[in-house]
């Protein structure tokens, strides 16, 4: 699971990062337009970028920057960050219009709070293309992630998408296994691989 590390501050509107693609759903069926994502850090924040070339079905109560549970009942991108030492993990949802949600888990599907808990100082951004595509991003303070899940070289992570609502299709960047879609398998998440963002030969879309 690649995470690009930038020595320069990252800013919305000037993000120049490789996007990695997901071209099949949970059932290994091809997606007409691959979903794309990227993870990156600068000195202070973790950035999660997600995009898709098709129109999104948005949660009717979602608004840019709004913290909202149950975003996964509509189209959404999801980031999971796990601490293999404690077994704790963090689920972060990012809607195509920059609404978001987060929740701490003590173990698989064992929520620390019923409706989730907003991470302080999160920023979110989105751009909806007139043709129907979208790109969204969020940034999270690294010091808060270090305090919550001991974020660092040992962190395990995965990126997932739910698209095509209400006939939802489930996508995962990493193979998790199982016939029924289940993103909550932190023991199967791969470790983060930190890659300097200015190195040549970075991986592109797959």
From TrEMBL:
Protein name (Swiss-Prot/TrEMBL): Carbohydrate-binding domain-containing protein
